[in-house]
Amino acid sequence: MEPEIPIDRQPSPTAYDTNFCFPVRELESERVKLTPFIPDLHADLYFQGSATYPDLYDFIPWQTFTSTSDFVKQVIDSRVQPDAGIVLFAVIDKTRISTSPSSATSANFAGIIGYMNTSPANLSTEIGYAIILPPFQRTHVTANAIGLLLQYALDLPPHGLGLRRVQWMANRLNTRSIAAVQKLGFKLEGVLRWDRIFVGSKASASNGIKERAEDPRPGTVGTDTAVLALCWDDWETERARVLEVMNRKS
């Protein structure tokens, strides 16, 4: 059965203003639902679900948050909400036992994912903010969440946005992330050396090269970033494979 994206589902009119440059709606397959992230509904679920897993941030420039309000301040208010090129979704695992399978609860809230660096002028976007909580990793959740975003981005209107390019960027050492999207048809385009700076000493993310003497930001970690993409012409042939991976039982 091919996962379908309902085209008439919208977040509650009393909900949060996502401030995204394209229409935002719920995206849903047989086993996973992506619903626009609303801080009042989802922020505490994220904080409670992630607080004991600091390794979630091994490859990204985040630290473990101290509270729900700290997460909202650092991520939602400072990064997501002001940028019309970013939208965040809450990931719901519909297969988990819950009193409300289609609404986010502590039993079925699987993490977050979204679009970023979205350009209507260039018909392009990037899938980012992809943090699947450990109890839901190595299951159907990640493939379905990414697959739903690919469908919406690359399918032609009215079912999708008709974009030409979807990008994925990951720390070069984050081999699990890179392998996961390659299974969905993303192609490695290159590695950006010394692409980002992490404050502190995240050895897991470092490119392993010490900065030169008198560097303007001493003591910070330099990282290399792998760039992958799946474009509309790839999608013509990869779409069926993505749907197969989404439907695969795990």
Overview of the structural elements:
The structure is a single chain. The protein is of the alpha+beta class. Helices cover 25% and strands 26% of the residues. It contains five helices and eight strands. α3 links the parallel β5 and β6. α3 (141-154) packs antiparallel against α5 (232-247). The longest helix has 16 residues, at 232-247. The protein is globular, with a radius of gyration of 18 Å. It starts with 26 loop residues before the first strand and ends with a helix. The relative contact order is 0.15. Mean pLDDT is 91; it is low at 1-14.
In short:
With 250 residues, this protein is an alpha+beta fold. The protein contains five helices and eight strands.
Please identify the structural class as seen in this structure: alpha+beta
Characterize the largest beta sheet: strand count, sense, and whether it forms a barrel: 8 strands, mixed
Strand order of the largest sheet: 1-2-3-4-5-6-8-7
H/E element sequence:
EEHHEEEHEHEEH
Tell me the number of strands.
8
Instruction: Using the alpha-carbon principal axes, give the shape.
Output: globular
Mean pLDDT, as a whole number? Answer: 91
Uncertain segments: 1-14
Keywords:
alpha+beta; 8 strands; single chain; 250 residues; eight-stranded mixed β-sheet
How does the SSE layout of this entry go?
Layout: E1 27-28, E2 32-36, H1 39-50, H2 68-80, E3 87-93, E4 109-119, E5 124-132, H3 141-154, E6 165-171, H4 175-182, E7 187-198, E8 221-231, H5 232-247
Parallel strand pairs: 5-6
Antiparallel strand pairs: 1-2, 2-3, 3-4, 4-5, 6-8, 7-8
Helix pairs in contact: 1-2, 3-5
